[in-house]
Design a protein that fits this description.
- With about 375 residues, the chain is α/β, with parallel strands linked by helices.
- The chain has two domains: about 120 residues, 3-Layer(aba) Sandwich (Rossmann fold), CATH 3.40.50.970; about 200 residues, Chloramphenicol Acetyltransferase.
- The protein contains eleven helices and 15 strands.
- The strands form four sheets. Strands 5, 8, 11, 12, 13, 14 and 15 form a seven-stranded mixed β-sheet that branches.
- The relative contact order is 0.11.
């Protein structure tokens, strides 16, 4: 007898098992932190929200004890909940519910009540990421976290260059009008409420992604998956070294003032080490601006599973020919690194052209 072998990944196998359970029994539903909109821990439940809807794929608040308890209650009421705890160490926060309720109610009720409940969690060596993890052993040596961050960045970038067929495009964008508009706007605001030119870039990129959506999303399990929204990952340098690119969510739907508030908040929390884990996993594209360091052009490496990165260099005065006349204009070089599996040079060029067009009309970005 010949048995056919199926090649798959743990992620694909888990997703298939969840899908089969949801299809087989209408009482089954999935609940947990970010299981719906953002695809769950390690993207295991990516796509299930669109397939089964919000009634059966339920995002929960950041409270393991509360949502595990809600799952126990649902099971008592006859449902078949699958509760996802993001990583196994966070289950300690729900230990009372697991040990003193889920594990004992059947016996304490003399068999009158059942708890048909599945609690799913991710684990594995080196992946315990709870806030308490640093207290579990010896304190890290000075510089260890920088070393670990460099290793993580190295692994991601090596994977990117090994697996992603990058293509690169660049263009010069005239910024004189946009900067003059921003200067006028800022003169009407108190110093603490003034906007950085970066928010113009964020908004222009976000709106341009509406026109070229294949640059906004992820390459997962051999296929492109559109992003659940336009969540721009803004590259921010950390004190002491390292770089992160947390998400500014729904950037296309926010005003410039809201984007400035979000950017200021992100930078503050990056520097103080108070980012949420979901903010690191959420970006659907990365934006990096190295102009303040004097860089002219950015040649980016895509952060997998994203499919594009856009970079901006420094604003400088350049000779600009317009209608046969040479003039001095302030301009910036924008560069795009994109994944050839999801888009081609023509679509990438349309994206950069859209960014350029939007920056020529800054008053429309509000």
């Amino acid at each position: 007898m010949t048995v056919a072998m199926i090649k798959t990944t743990y992620r694909e196998a888990m997703r298939a098992a969840l899908r089969e359970a949801l299809q087989r029994d209408p009482r089954v539903f999935l609940m947990g932190e970010d299981v719906g909109r953002y695809g769950g821990s390690y993207a295991v439940s990516m796509g299930l929200l669109a397939e089964f809807g919000e009634e059966r794929i339920r995002d929960t608040p950041l409270s393991e004890s509360a949502f595990v308890g809600a799952g126990i209650g649902a099971a008592l009421a006859g449902m078949r909940p699958i509760v996802e705890v993001m990583t196994v160490n966070f289950s300690l926060l729900a230990l009372d519910q697991i040990l003193n309720n889920a594990a004992t109610i059947r016996h304490m009720s003399g068999g009158q009540f059942s708890i048909p409940l599945v609690i799913r969690m991710a684990t594995g060596g080196g992946r315990q990421l709870a806030a308490q993890a640093a207290k579990a052993g010896a304190p890290p040596k000075p510089g260890d976290w920088q070393s670990q961050m460099r290793k993580a960045i190295a692994a991601a970038m090596a994977k990117s260059k090994r697996e992603i067929p990058h293509y690169y495009l660049g263009t010069e964008i005239e910024m004189t009008r946009a900067l003059a508009w921003l200067e006028r706007e800022n003169t009407q605001r108190p110093v603490t409420a003034r906007m950085l030119y970066a928010v113009l870039l964020i908004k222009a990129v976000a709106l341009a992604l509406r026109e070229v959506p294949e640059l906004n999303g992820f390459w997962i399990d051999g296929a492109f998956q559109p992003g659940p929204g336009i969540h721009v990952g803004m590259a921010v340098a950390m004190r002491g070294g390292g770089l992160v690119a947390p998400a500014i969510h729904d950037a296309d739907r926010k005003s410039l003032v809201q984007l400035m508030d979000d950017l200021r908040d992100l930078i503050t929390r990056v520097r103080s080490g108070r980012l949420k884990s979901s903010e690191m996993a959420d970006p659907t594209i990365t934006l990096t601006s190295l102009g303040d360091l004097g860089v002219e052009t950015v040649y980016g490496v895509i952060y997998p599973p994203q499919v594009a990165l856009i970079g901006f260099g420094r604003i400088s005065e350049r000779a600009w020919v317009e209608n046969g006349v040479v003039a001095c204009r302030r301009a910036v070089t924008a560069s795009l690194a994109a994944d050839h599996r999801t888009s081609d040079g023509h679509r990438g060029a349309l994206f950069l052209a859209a960014v350029n067009r939007l920056l020529q009309e800054p008053e429309q970005l509000q």
